[in-house]
Amino acid sequence: MSQITVTVPPVTVYGGTVPDRSAGQTEEQFALNVYPYLGYFNTTFTPENQAVITALNTFKTQANTLADGTNADAVATAADRVQTGLDRVQTGLDVTASAASAASAAAIAGAFVGTSTTSVLIATGSKSFTTQTGEQYTAGIFLTAVSQANTANYMFGQVTSYNSGTGALVLDVQVIGGSGTYADWNLSLVGARGEQGPAGATFNGGAITTLLYAQAGITTTNLVASGHIDTARATVASHATTADIWGALGNQIDWTGTATTTAFPNAPQAGAERTLICAGACSFTAGANMLIDGVTSGNTVTCAANDTVIVRAISTTQFKLTRLKYDGTAQVVAPVTGAGSLIYLSTVTASAASTVTFEAEFTSTYDDYVIFFDGVYFSGFYELFARIKIGGSYITTATYYYHIDISNYSAATYVGIGGNGIDHLRVLSPNAQLTAILPMSGTFNLFDVNNATSVNSFIWNTADTAGRRKNEASGMSTDAGVLQGIQFYPNAGTVTGTFRIYGIKKA
Questions:
Q1: In 3-state terms, what secondary structure has residue 205?
Q2: How far apart (Å, rounded) are the C-alpha atoms in residues 281 and 304?
Q3: Residue 385: enclosing H or E segment and its boundaries?
Q4: pLDDT over threshold 60, residue 323
Q5: Alpha-carbon radius of gyration of the chain
Q6: What pTM does this model have?
Q7: In whole angstroms, what is the distance from residue 253 CA to residue 257 CA?
Q8: Who has the most CB within 10 Å: 121, 281, 384, 492?
Q9: Strands 185-190 and 113-116
């Protein structure tokens, strides 16, 4: 029987430090140990093991030739064992290669992660960190810096520069999360940020899309709510024509400013509605496209602070306004302002006063005036007198003339009294003391007050409820000149009551 001779070459044992993260090696130590370890496998271990395999293959060939006699089975068995040995050697090589690949991948991955204890404020823009040296942070790649204490605090950006020798890293931050200043950053490689997706449907002045309706299970023809609907409140400054109440982010609007509004921008659709809460005095002028409850076209209604104005779109260009007064009273229609109109000017509410005076109301705007008095009474059994102001002072000389016709209801009689060349006009002469329960009311008319060359003439009517008397009177002052004021006063004691003056606008 032939003899089988096989020489198996030796295998060199690795003499360096084996890379092992489980042994407590740092990331840098692990990376440094990987590269000589891979060199050993590539230049020593792998060739030597290939020589072993070659020797074993030779042995297998020689064993296969021993097929004679009873030794054939033994030889075959030996061959199988050799093959098993070869398989085990190959498996060892595969495991070694996998370990080497994993170590290489770990080393590469470690070059793209790091930490930093640099104190940095979360914000967009250029941010500087000091991190580990030897990293692979090339300019242009994207990193995230995440706080170790709270991952909601982060910055995302693109590397501007990195010094591998010093660890100095500059990051252009583009997206942030959270806020504050931190010094516990984990730095990691990430992909570039994707493109902005399409905006979702909102209620901010735009229509809800049919798709959103369908997703919510709501039809576009009917909207039925089983609970409350909360709308927002916005602020819009008043303007003559461009105050955009429809584009504001709220159905309830704080209406600021004092501009008189004559129109609104186009509404999104007919039926749209906004509620304006007046911050202060503000005005709205009625017109063909501004229909104001109780106000005719061309006239203006003035609102007070906290009044509410509801604006409803009849069409996209025509609007209906309803005013709700904060004080709870009914809306007062704005006065007609054309020629011949009776224009309210002011009110004097007297309380135990010695005089009631109107002066600032007399201007060139009006030629005629009417004064209404209501609930007038005195501190005793007194009368009401009047004087006019011309040339800067009240006339107190004996230049007044008047005649009063008095009808006495209780006696069914009629008498007349007069004054010729005295220093006042007698407005009321009661035959009993007036009181808060039994006061006097009436009117006093002044004519052509701006005529500088004619005398001033007057007509007045009063009703004396205390003595059941009605006074109808007329009078004048022979002092010619523009009338600058009128003063009512009791002949003794004090007067209480309300006096309102109106002007009749010139033609």
A1: coil
A2: 4
A3: strand 384-390
A4: yes
A5: 53
A6: 0.39
A7: 13
A8: 384
A9: antiparallel
